[in-house]
Each structure stands twice: as C-alpha cells, then as structure tokens.
C-alpha cells in the first residue's frame, strides 16, 4: 500500500509511471524524494505543478547532505528557486559550506534569489553579442556557431532563462541575415583529420625524442590535468560528493591550506597522492594503470606521490617483492617523493585502535575465521561487550596471550560492499621483515589503508574510520581496474601456473606481470601509452591484448634498430660471387631515417635464408625464390637466381646453388628477402597467447578451470637460429627489429657463449608475405 501511495505521489510530481517505478527501486532516493514532496505540499497544498516537481526530483537525486533538504525545499516551494540553474548553484553552495549556520544572505546572492531578468535586458545582451561578431556572422551566415552568441549573453545575464536567450538569438539573427538560402542549407565540408593511429604514432615519436620515460603518457597527463578540474582542491575535501563532514572537519582541513607539516615539510597546497601496493606478489598490467594514475596525476598538477608498501601481513611478504615493485615503478619512469611503509606507523595505528575501543567503535571478537567469511556472516555475540573488557582483551592480544585465530579486533561498521564489522587486528606469530618480533598482532589492510593516508596527509586517495577517530580524512577516488583478455593476473592463480609448470616464474614472458612484460621486451613507454589510451575510467575495463601490442609496435618502430635473423636456415651457395673476399654491407639502423646511422654486416659466397623463402614449385602468387623466379637480397644490391637444388638421402632440400647479378643489371625481382652471412648462432623464443579462450577464468567459457585452457603452442624454442653479427655486443633487454620477422628483445638468460632472444611482438604484416 505504501508503494502505491509513493507511486501516486511521484507521478503527481510529473514523473512518468515508468520513471516513478524506477525511482522506487532506489530506497535512498525514494525516501528523500518522498520527504521533499511531503514538505513541499505543506506550502503548496496537495497539487504540485510539473516544473516544481522536476526541481524537487533534481534536488532529491543530487543532494548528498540530508540535513539541507528542508532548507532547500522551502526555497523551491516558495518559488525563490525556480530554475535548474538556480538549483545547481544552491546544491553547490551547500556542498561547499558544510557547517552550520548557513549565511542566507550570501546563499541567496550566490543562487540568484530575487533576481529578475527582463526581456529588454536579454534583447540588449544578445544585440551586443551579435555586434561583436557581425563581420564573421555576415561572412559565415548560418554556419556561424550560434552557441557563442548564447554563451556571451548568458555570461552577462547569469540567471536569465536559457530558452528566452535562444529565442532572442534566433530572432535577431533572422532579422540580420534573412531566411536561409540553398547555400546555407548545404552541408559544411568536413575538415580532414589524421587517423587516430597516425596521430598516436606521431605522438609516440615526439615523446621518444624527448627521452623521458615518465613523459611518454602525455595524453594521460592531459586527461589528469582535466581531472583536476573535477577533483577537489587540496583542503576542499568537503566539496566532494558523498564526503562526510563532522564538527571537526574544517579544523582538520586547515593544515592543507596553510602552514607546514613537521613530518613532510613543504607547502600543503600541493596535490599529494600515493601508490600503495601490498608486497606479496609482482605487479601486473592492471597496476600500471594505478601507477600512471597516481604518479601521473601528481606530476600533472605539480604535486608529489608516495610509494607506500602496505606491509601488514608478514606471512606473505618477501624481500624480492619490495625490490621488484620499486624497480617496476622506476622502470615506468616515475620517482616516488618518498618510500614509506605501513609498518612505519604500527605504534600510531595501535594507539588509534585503543582509542577506537574507548569510543565504543571497536570490540574484541572470538568468532573463528570460517565464521567471518562472506558477506552474510552471523552477527558477533561479542559486539556489545563492555569497553573495559575489550580494552583488557586487546592488551592481552598484544602480549601474546591468545593463539592465532582465537581473537580479533573488529570495527563497528558496514563496509561499502556490505561486509559487516571488518577485522582491524588479528594475531600472527610471524616475525615481520622490518619490525622483527616486536609485534604479534598486525593491522589489516581495511584498517591501515585510510589511516596511513591520513598520516601522510594524502589529498586525493572507508573513511568512516578517520571520522570516527577525529583525524584528517582524505578523499578516496575510485577508478576502474584494468584487465586483459586471454590472461590471468591473480597472484594466487599465477602461483598455481608456476606450481603446475605451465610458466617458469612471475617473469615468464607469457604472463602480464610487469616483470614479464619487461622480459618479453615491452618498452615502458608503450605501457604508459596504453594506459593513456585506456584513460581514466571508473568502470572496470577489459581490453584486447592486441591493443597493447599496437602500442608496443608504435614505440619499437621508432626505437628498435634493424637487424636480420633466420629462424629456419637454408644454406645458399653463390657460385659466381663477384669477389674472393666477403663484402662489407652498410645496413641502415632505421631505413625510414638514415640519419640514425648504419651498421655493417658481412656478405660472402655462403648465405642463409629462411627455408620458407624457397619453393621448388611456386604456386600462384608466390613471389620468392623458385625455379625461374629470382629474388633480391636486402641491402646488398644483388639478385640471386636458382641454379641447383642439393638434396639429402631422405629427399629433403639441404642447400641451394645460385648465381648473382647486380640488381640494376636486369629486370627488378618481384621480392627482396632477408639473409645472414657469417652469422651468430642464437636461441629464439617465440610466444603466443598462454590461454586458448578470451576469458579463461569464466566457468561458462572454460568449465574445466583456467589450468585446463593452456595453449600447448604458447612457447616455441628455436635452438639454432642465426642472426647477423651486428648484435654481437647486445645486452639483456636490448631490442631489435629482425626484418620481416618482428620485434625481439635480448633475454637475461643470454651468456657470452650464446644470445637468447624473446619475440616481443610480430610485425603488423603477415611474416609469411613480402
């Protein structure tokens, strides 16, 4: 019955029945709208006109502080606020003035209450705007941007009705230009724009010339500068929608607008962000987005960013993870303002936990871990135990009088995901890598995270906890997680892959951890550019791997020098080689830009080509070496022509005998192929996707689980590939484009005896075509 009454009430405000029913599904909104309508009826009676109803709906759906509802409803019901523009100004005012009392005179001035805009004023403002643009308006006629005229008139008359301004603009423009002609009705010619991929490539090239890895994500930086217009300024946390204010809020925020903090002494008008990883695993591609967002936002706004290790679980933390995380942040081009640890603050966190108990906001609980799992766990029978009892028990936990799992400290709150009374402290008899055996109780991530943000005075970061303790409360900005198809990034599942022998370790190049991507040869600039393309999104984003690979190609095309390698060698003897000694061939490092230098390779009577570049019987469309079909050898200026095929006892082709001629001494061949002479033997590892299905963790797509979805062809090792001698001095992580094959990076497994290369990505073209 109550629902029917509310439905009738909402449709009486002018909402359609469908809109009213949708509103009823939102408990908080429907309650606030019901209250607003009821209060308005006390002034207007039972009937509320549609214009007022629309404003009441806008008020109820956008107001974040219910304390201001009655105040604003009275202005709407009494027609003092009667436009959407005034309502927006009113909502902004109460958001930016969270403390009582509200200065009504200042409020009314800021919201245009009592301001009357006459038709004559609108006519004069529009006429003035047209006169300023008359020459251009007469030239462009109806192709002129009329929004410019309306914007200038609105700037003069802030509280004027938008529809009235538009009508006046239309009338005065018609009087000036007359009716539209056929020419006016023709479509405006489109201005040709560079294709996005061309624009991205130019951007990448420019960024590479600057030489700073952290500046590779310029487009992300621009986005983040734009986000600064949406985010609050330091010290104005209370202007953020949903930010909860307390009687202490304004005093606690004063430190961000004046003075210095003893712990971190510098002006606090700066933006302060942090990247807070848990050191219990290796960072993956999703973390790259978080790194770019936090460090990038600070850099774009002349701020600082902390790297803070949330080292609150000594059972899972290892020294190698701390080192690897720091290395990956640096590899992506960022330098933390300061490296900190949650363990730096263990004493303060413990003191705050005691204070929380004193305030009746936390209690010691004896429910077991299995009883606390999930979001529908049974309420704790110890939730209302006396404060003094919890204080004694928490001290007993601190002194090691409970076994692991026998007692926890829980906070009295419901988290955003619906979890009831999350754990703040638990007992663990594991030495900590930094504090040793000092502690046998450790804070949880849920408890620690926001309080460390408060300690470090992060400006842009459950902050019920901060307010419950009356400490500075940062603002938490949520941005969506970044995932990739054909991949798993969970630490637990990567450990399963390692244990099953499916991958070698965290840095196996088939994974999407950052250490794996570095080992495969992905440049950090490409990862930053990929994050820039993804953008600052709130929703979780799952991208195709080929989009990341496209960013890799864009960077490597401009940075990876060319070399030649042969994966499946076929020996070729040139029977009429023009000299008795080998020739030295100058090969450009970057054929498209020879100013970047050359390298030298030998060219002798014995060369090796790809076995796939020869066929005894060429099918239609085949352009490489065959009987009666010569090919050119890249960079040599020579063309070879088949004379004899040498086969072994099994009938397999073992070598070819050819003759050569100058390329300019006859008809141009249909194709030019790569080759090597006097080469180095190397190992080359060719990688494909690790999983066969797009979503290997989806039971509907892979019923047998992700381990059953492994691609048996994800790694092919070519143990005796040949590469030209120009790469002889290459070091781990050096990158090359092997012509016609793809981009390759030197693997750390390389030694003085033999180089090992990982194929980073293929070329855009089919490697089998010329």
Automatic annotation (TrEMBL):
Residues 180-206 are annotated as: Disordered. InterPro entries: aa-tRNA-synth_I_CS (IPR001412), Gln-tRNA-synth (IPR004514), Gln-tRNA-synth_Ib_RNA-bd_2 (IPR007638), Gln-tRNA-synth_Ib_RNA-bd_N (IPR007639), Gln-tRNA-synth_Ib_RNA-bd_N_1 (IPR042558), Gln-tRNA-synth_Ib_RNA-bd_N_2 (IPR042559), Gln/Glu-tRNA_Ligase (IPR050132), Glu/Gln-tRNA-synth (IPR000924). Residues 181-206 have a biased composition (Basic and acidic residues). It is found in: Cytoplasm, Cytosol. Residues 672-747 form the tRNA synthetases class I (E and Q) anti-codon binding domain. Its main location: cytoplasm. Residues 270-557 form the Glutamyl/glutaminyl-tRNA synthetase class Ib catalytic domain. It holds the Pfam family tRNA_synt_1c_R2. Residues 7-162, 165-254 form the Glutaminyl-tRNA synthetase class Ib non-specific RNA-binding domain. GO terms for molecular function: ATP binding; glutamine-tRNA ligase activity. The keyword Lipid biosynthesis does not apply. GO terms for cellular component: aminoacyl-tRNA synthetase multienzyme complex; cytosol. It comes from the Eukaryota. It catalyses: tRNA(Gln) + L-glutamine + ATP = L-glutaminyl-tRNA(Gln) + AMP + diphosphate. Residues 560-660 form the Glutamyl/glutaminyl-tRNA synthetase class Ib anti-codon binding domain. Keywords: Acetylation, Aminoacyl-tRNA synthetase, ATP-binding, Cytoplasm, Ligase, Nucleotide-binding, Phosphoprotein, Protein biosynthesis. It is an enzyme of class 6 (ligase). PROSITE patterns: AA_TRNA_LIGASE_I. Its EC number is 6.1.1.18. Belongs to the class-I aminoacyl-tRNA synthetase family. Glutamine--tRNA ligase. Plays a critical role in brain development. This is Glutamine--tRNA ligase. The lineage of its organism: Eukaryota, Metazoa, Chordata, Craniata, Vertebrata.
């Amino acid at each position: 019955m109550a629902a029917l009454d509310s439905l009738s009430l909402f449709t009486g405000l002018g909402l359609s029945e469908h809109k009213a029913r949708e509103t009823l599904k939102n408990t908080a909104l429907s309650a606030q709208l019901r209250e607003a309508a009821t209060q308005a009826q006390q002034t207007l009676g039972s009937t509320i006109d549609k214009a007022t109803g629309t404003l009441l709906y806008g008020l109820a759906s956008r107001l974040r502080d219910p304390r201001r509802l009655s105040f604003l409803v009275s202005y709407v019901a009494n027609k003092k606020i009667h436009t959407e523009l005034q309502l927006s100004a009113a909502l902004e005012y109460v958001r930016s003035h969270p403390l009582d009392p509200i200065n009504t005179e200042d409020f009314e001035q800021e919201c245009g209450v009592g301001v009357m805009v006459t038709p004559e004023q609108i006519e004069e403002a529009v006429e003035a705007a047209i006169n300023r643009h008359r020459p251009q308006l007469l030239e462009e006629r109806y192709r002129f941007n009329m929004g410019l005229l309306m914007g200038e008139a609105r700037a003069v008359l802030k509280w004027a009705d938008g529809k009235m301004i538009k009508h006046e603009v239309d009338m005065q423009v018609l009087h000036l230009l007359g009716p539209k002609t056929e020419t006016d009705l023709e479509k405006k010619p489109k201005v040709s724009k560079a294709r996005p991929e061309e624009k991205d490539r130019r951007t990448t090239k420019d960024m590479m010339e600057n030489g700073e890895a952290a500046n590779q994500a310029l487009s992300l930086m621009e986005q983040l500068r734009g986000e600064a217009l949406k985010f609050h300024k330091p010290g104005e946390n209370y202007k953020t929608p949903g930010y909860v204010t307390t009687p202490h809020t304004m005093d606690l925020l004063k430190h961000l607008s004046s003075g210095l903090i003893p712990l971190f002494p510098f002006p606090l008008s700066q933006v302060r962000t942090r990247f807070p990883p848990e050191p219990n695993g290796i960072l993956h591609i999703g973390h790259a987005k978080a790194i770019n967002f936090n460090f990038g936002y600070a850099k774009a706004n002349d701020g600082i960013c902390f790297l803070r290790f949330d080292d609150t679980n000594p059972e899972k933390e290892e020294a190698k993870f701390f080192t690897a995380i720091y290395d990956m942040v640096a590899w992506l081009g960022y330098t933390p303002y300061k490296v900190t640890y949650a363990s730096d603050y263990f004493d303060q966190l413990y003191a705050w936990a005691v204070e929380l108990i004193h305030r009746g906001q936390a209690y010691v609980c004896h429910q077991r871990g299995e009883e606390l799992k999930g979001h529908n766990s049974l309420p704790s029978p110890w939730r209302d135990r006396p404060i003094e009892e919890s204080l004694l028990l928490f001290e007993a936990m601190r002194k090691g009088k409970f076994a692991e799992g026998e007692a926890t400290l829980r906070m009295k709150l419901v988290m955003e995901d619906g979890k009831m009374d999350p754990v703040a402290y638990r007992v663990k008899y594991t030495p900590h890598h930094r504090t040793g055996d000092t502690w046998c109780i450790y804070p949880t991530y849920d408890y620690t995270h926001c309080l460390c943000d408060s300690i470090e005075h992060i400006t842009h970061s459950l902050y019920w906890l901060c307010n419950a303790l009356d400490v500075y409360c940062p603002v938490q900005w949520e941005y969506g997680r970044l995932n990739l198809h054909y991949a798993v990034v969970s630490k637990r599942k990567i450990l399963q892959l390692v244990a099953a022998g499916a991958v070698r370790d965290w840095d196996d190049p088939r994974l999407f951890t950052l250490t794996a991507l570095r080992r495969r040869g992905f440049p950090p600039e490409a990862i930053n550019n990929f994050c820039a393309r993804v953008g600052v999104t709130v929703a979780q984003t799952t991208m195709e791997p080929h989009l990341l690979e496209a960013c890799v190609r864009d960077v490597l095309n401009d940075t990876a020098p060319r070399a030649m390698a042969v994966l499946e060698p076929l020996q070729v003897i040139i029977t009429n080689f023009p000299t008795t000694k080998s020739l030295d061939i100058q090969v450009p490092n970057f054929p498209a830009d020879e100013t970047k230098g050359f390298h030298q390779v030998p060219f002798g009577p014995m060369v090796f080509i790809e076995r796939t570049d020869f066929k005894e019987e060429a099918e239609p469309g085949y352009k490489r070496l065959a009987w009666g079909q010569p090919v050119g050898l890249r960079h040599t200026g020579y063309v070879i022509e088949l004379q004899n095929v040498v086969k072994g006892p099994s009938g397999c082709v073992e070598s070819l005998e050819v003759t050569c001629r100058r390329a300019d001494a006859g008809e141009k061949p249909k194709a030019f192929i790569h080759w090597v002479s006097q080469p180095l033997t190397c190992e080359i590892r060719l990688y494909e996707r690790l999983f066969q299905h797009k979503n290997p963790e989806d039971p509907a797509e892979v019923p047998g689980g992700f381990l059953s979805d492994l691609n048996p062809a994800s790694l092919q090792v070519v143990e005796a590939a040949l590469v030209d001698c120009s790469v002889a001095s290459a070091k781990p992580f050096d990158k090359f484009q092997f012509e016609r094959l793809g981009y390759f990076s030197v693997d750390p497994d390389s030694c003085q005896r033999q180089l090992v290369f990982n194929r980073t990505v293929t070329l855009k073209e089919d490697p089998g075509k010329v």
